[in-house]
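Backbone geometry:

***
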Amino acid sequence: MKRTLLVVLLALVLCLLPLAGTAKQPPCRNSLGECPREGCSKNNDHDPDLNKLKNLKSSTKPVVDRTLTWMIQREQKVENSGYRRGDDRDPLAALDEGSQARVVGYLLAVKKEHGESCNCHLDDVDVTTDNHLVLVNRNVVTSNPLPEHASAKKIKSVFKVREAQSVTAEFTPRVRADGHPNFTSELQKVLNTTPQGALWVRVTGQLFFDSEHFHNLKLNRATQWEIHPILKLEFCPTGKTCPKDGDTNWVDLDDQP
């Protein structure tokens, strides 16, 4: 049973790795230290204010407990505001963009990413690149369970259905370099020990609206609202119970060796 579980989860990890041959942009700076907060945002190819938000390193704002459902429902509020990509971000700030939120849910994947504009297209994976975390509510996992002895095709199919109902959170290189070295794809190894490919986590960070994928280039997820960047991540070890509003049994990723 344990061997079968490991094979299933290994297949899940492999199908989530970045595709070989993905087009890459050349770096516009030589190192992350030389990369400005607006990243490579010249010629209006990218929104410099968007990149500045992504490149937050820390926050002293109060943490407010939110739910993934609350974040998903916030998508319609952006639609109603009339905001369009490239507009002034004041309507998004009025919807709490830039505030600090804490959410609880199941982590389904920690995806490696390539260089992006915000990181000056530097492409040293898990050093100068983001990691894309896929979060869902409990009912998404229970309603779409992974059957025992599932094939790689079935695993991919179940993940696609789950991911369509997800919220994104992001590890970023500036936060990683600012005292959070464990904010990498290595967290996937903890995820791989779970029986349903789902790790109960509590994530704290900046509430952020991904206007780059609003109306265009939409990803397979339920909303463009994200926790980006993640400033704290706690996980619940297998076999333990961790409350949403208490600290019992939660393990801080920063405390791991």
Summary: The CA atoms of residues 29 and 35 lie 6 Å apart. The chain is about 25% helix and 20% strand.
